[in-house]
Amino acid sequence: MAACGRVRLFLLIVSVSFCVCRSAGDKIPNGNANPLPNRQPHPAVAQYPAAGNAGPGAAVSQSRRAAGWKLAEEEACREDLTRLCPKHTWNNNLAVLECLQDRKEFNLTTDPKFESVAVEVCKTTIPEIKECAEEERGKGYLVSCLVDHRGNITEYQCHQYITKMTTIIYSDYRLICGFMDKCREDINALRCGSINTGEKDIHSQGEVIACLEKGLVNEAEEQSQRYVIKDECKKAILRVAELSSDDFHLDRYLYFSCRDDRERFCENTQAGEGRVYKCLFNHKFEEAMSEKCRDALTTRQKLIAQDYKVSYSLAKACKADLRKYRCNMDTNLPRAREARLSYLLLCLESAVHRGRTVSGECQGEMLDYRRMLMEDFSLSPEIVLHCRGEIESHCSGLHRKGRTLHCLMRVGRGDKGVVDDLCQRSLQTLIQEADPGSDYRIDRALNEACESVIQTACKHIRSGDPMILSCLMEHLYTEKMVEDCEHRLLELQYFISRDWKLDPILYRKCQGDAARLCHTHSWNETSEMMPPGAVFSCLYRHAYRTEEQGRRLSRDCKVEVQRILHQRALDVKLDPDLQKRCMTDLGKWCSEKTDPGQELECLQDHLEDLGQDCRDVVGNLTELESEDIQIEALLIRACEPVIQSHCHEVADNQIDSGDLMECLIQNKHQKEMNEKCAVGVTHFQLVQMKDFRFSYKFKMACKEDVLKLCPNIKKKVDVVICLSTTVRNDTLQDAKEQRVALKCRKQLRVEELEMSEDIRLEPELYDACKQDISRLCPNVAFGNAQCLKQNKNSELMDPKCKQMITKRQITQNTGKIFSVRRHCMGQRIPNKMYTSRGRLINYRLNPVLRKACKADIPKFCQNILNKASDGNELEGQVIACLKLKYADQRLSMDCEDQIRVILQESALDYRLDPQLQMHCTEEISRLCAEEAAAQEQTGQVEECLKVNLLKIKHDSCKKEVLNILKESKADIFVDPVLHTACALDIKHHCAAILPGRGRQMSCLMEALGDKRVRLQPECKKRLQDRIDMWSYAAKVAPAEGFSDLAMQVMISPSKNYILFMIALCVCVLFMVGLLCGRITKRVTRELKDR
C-alpha cells in the first residue's frame, strides 16, 4: 500500500504538470493525463527523484511512464484499484487518483511539492492576485488561495492545474486559505473536531465544515441562541460553500453522504456547474433517498437560502439580471440581506411582474428554487423559528413534498386552531417569495392533488399559466373538483387573497390603477400601515363607481377585480377584511354553517345582531352583490338553466346593475327554476329587506327621495311604506307636483309587486301571521301571499295579522292606482279595475273612491269612522253607507260615479258585497244554492233573493235585499237582470235620458203606463215584478226619515197625485189658520195698547 502511495504521488505531479504544460490545441480528451511520447517532462518533475525509486513497484523507467503509462498497470496498485475503484476509471490516471483520495486511503495534501508546482505553473497569475502573492510559502496555503480565487484566473495552464487540485484541497479544511484562522474558536466551541488532527481521521475534515454549516443554519432557526458564530467565520463558511457549488465532489461531507444516492438517482448526470446538486435536490424526498444524504442536502439548501451564491447555477444564470435590476446594489440594506435567496427572488419577481425582461435561464433557476422553498418548510428559518409550536401540535410527521407547509396554511386559515401572528406573517412572506400564484407547479402538493382536475377542467390552458389557479377556483365545489385538490387550493388561495400582488394577472392589469387610486408600493415592498386586503378593497370600491362619481378603474382592471370577487364569494375566509372583522360573529352565530356559501348567508341573516365593524363590511359586500349578483358564483351555478332560458341577454352584459337578479325574481315561477336557485333568489330578496341599499336599482332610483322624505329609515320595507304613503297622500290631495320622483315611483311599483308575492319579504307581517299561515294556509307556498288575504275575514285569523294585512293592502293599492293613472294618462280609467273584494270591504283600499268621496264620507258616515281604527276592515260599512246615500241621490257627482261602478260590479257578483254576503250566507245556501253554485257573474243570486224576498227569515238579510231594491230605483244599471231585459227599450224610448238619479227608471215606468208604447214582453214582466217588489218593500220597510219619505214620493208612479194632495192639504191648513185664528184667540185693545 505504501508503495502504491508513492507511485500515486509521483503520478499526480507528473500528470498535473504535463496537463498544464500542454497548449490549448493539445487538450486531452475526457481529462486523461496520458502524455505524448515526445513531450519532455516539466522541470518540476525532475526535482522529485525520490518518487521514482521508492520501492520495487516503482522501478519503472521514467521514459516508460512518460509514454502512456497507466497507474492501474502498476503491480503495487492493482489490488487497491480492484478493491476500491470502479473498472471504468482504470484508464484515467486522474480518475484513479480521485477515487483513491475519495476512499480516504491516502493523504496527498500535505506534500510541499504541490506548492512548488503551483509556483512554477502559475508564476504569471500569482502576482496578479494580491492575496495569494502575500501568502506565506511552505505552509501549503498558496494552492488553497489559488483555489479560492480560481474564478479570477485567466491563464489556461494555471486554471487547469488549480481545477485538478480543487478536490484535494477541499478534503481538508486546514488547506483552505485562512479558514482555520477565522474559525478556530468556533470549531472548538461547537465541538466540530480538533484542529490537531491525528493520523486516524486525517481525511475526515469535511465533517468539520459540515458541522460548522449546521451550526450556521441552526443559529437562524433558534430563538435562544446558545452560541453565535463570529461574522468572519460565517463569511468563510459561506465562501467555502460557494466555491464548492459547481462540483458536488468539493463538498466532501455531502459527497461521502450521497455517493450511493448519486449512483442511484443521478448516474447519468455529468458533474460540474451544480448539475449533480440539482439532480439530488429533485430526488430529495424519494423513498429510496438515504436519510444521511437527505440531511446533507437540506443543510446545503439552507445555506443557499442564506446566500444565493452557494448555488452555482442560480448565481451564474441570474448574474446579468441581478446587475441589470440592481438587486444587489441596495446600500440601505445589510449585505447579509442582499445575499439572501428570498431577497433575490423578490427583486427579480418584481421585475417580471412589472413586465421587464428576465432571461429564460434565470427564470428557470428561480422556478426551481421557488419550488424548493414550497417543498421544504425547513428552508425558511423564520417558519422554523416562529411556527415550531404549530408544527409540533398539528403538523408533525408531514415533512415531505410540501405537506407540512400546507398543514401550516390550514392552521393559518383557522381550520385547525389559532395560529401565532409571527407564524402567520412568516407564512405570508414565504408565499410572496415562492410566488406560486404565477405558476401552480411551484406548489408540489397542489400540483399532485389537482393534476386530475387540471387535465379535465383546465386542459385548454397552457401548463404553468397563472390562469390555471383561476380555472381551478371556477370549478371549486363542482363535480369535477376532488376533495384533496379543494383543500390544497383553498389553503393557498387564503394567503394569495391577503396580498393582491400575488395574483399576477390582477397585478399586471391593475398596478397603474392601484398606484393612482390606492397609493401602493412596488411589488417587493410592503407597508406595515396597510392591513391585508386593503389594496383590493380599495380597488373594488372604485370598480363600481359611476361616471358621475369619477376616479373609476380601467376596463381591464375592473374585469380582473370582478373575477377575484366571484372567486372570493365561494369562501368567506378568502376575504381578509370580512374574516378579520367578523371572526367573533362567525363563531357566535355561524359555527354550524360549514357548507359552501353558508357562512356569508348566515352573517347576512344575522345582520342586525352583528358587531358594528362586521355589519359594515357585510353590508358593503351585500350592496356590491346587489349591483353584480354574478359575484355569488354558487347562486349563478344553481340558476344556470333559468339564466340560459330567460335571462341570457342580461347575463351577457358586462355591466349588471341589478338586471340579472331582477330577471331571476321575475322568472321565479318558471319550470326551469330549480329548488336551489329558488332558495338562493328568495334568500337574497330577504336580505334586501334589511336595508334599502341592498337593492341596487331601488337605491339608485330613490336614494335622493329617501334622504329627503325618509331620512332616518334603513329597512327596505319601512322605506317602501314611507315612500308609498307619500305617493298616496299626493295622489289623494291632487298635489300639483309629486314629491317622489318619477323614476322612484316606477321602481317603487316593482318593489311592491315583489313584496306582495311572498309574505316572507315583509318580516314584521310574517312574524305576526306565522300561526295563521300554519292554520289557514298549510299547503300553500310562501310565494302565494294571496292565501292570507283571501282568508282575512276568517274567524280563525288573529286580529293582529288581519290588521297588518290591511295596512299593507292600503299601501300597495295606492301604488297600483298611481301606476294605472300614470299609464292611462288622458284616458278614462276602467273603474272595474278598482273593485276587488278588498276595496269593497275597506274603502281605504280604494284611493280613487277616497279621493272622489272625501267630502261625502265625513258628512254621511262619520259615526262609522269614529268606531274604526287604521287596521280595521270596516266590513264594507262605509261603502254600504254611501250606497244608501246614492239611492237617496244625495252624493256629489264624483262620488256618485264611483259608487255607481261599485254597485254595478257587486250586482253582478254577490260576493263583492260584503254586507250581503255576511248577512245572507244562510239564506243563499237555502234559497239560491243552484245559482250560487254556478258562480256566474250575471246577478242571478241577487235576483233569486229579490224573488224570494217573502221567504227570507232573517231580518238582517231581508234589510240588505230591500236596500238593493231601493238602490235599483236610483239607477237601472245596478239591476243587471232588469237592465238586460230592457236594454232594447232603453235604447228606443230613453236614449236621450242621462243615466243616474232614477231618470231612466222613471222613463221606463212612464212608458209602461203609456198604452201607446209597446215594451218588450220580458222588460214589461220584469218592470211589473219590480213594482210589486217596491210596493212590498214600502210596506215592510217604511221610510226611516223625511228624506226616505221624500225619495219614495219622488220615485212613486203616483208622484203627481201625491204632490197635488200634499199641496192641497197645505193650502187648506193655511186658509183655516187665516180664517179661524182671530176666533180662537181674541186680544183686547187694552192689552194691545200696553
Task: Describe the protein's architecture and organization.
The protein has 1090 residues and is mainly alpha-helical. Helices cover 61% and strands 0% of the residues. α50 crosses α51 (893-908). The longest helix is centred in the C-terminal third of the chain and has 26 residues, at 1055-1080. GO terms for molecular function: fibroblast growth factor binding. It is a single-pass type I membrane protein. The chain crosses the membrane at residues 1057-1080. Residues 49-59 have a biased composition (Low complexity). Pfam families: Cys_rich_FGFR.
The description of the largest β-sheet is: none
Structural class: mainly alpha
Strand content: under 5%
Helix content: 55-70%
On the 0 to 100 scale, the average pLDDT is 77
Radius of gyration based on Cα positions: 52 Å
Gap between N and C termini = 181 Å
- The number of helical runs is 63
- Please mark out the parts with pLDDT under 50 across 5 or more consecutive residues, or reply none: 5-67, 104-109, 195-203, 331-335, 815-836
- Total number of strands: 0
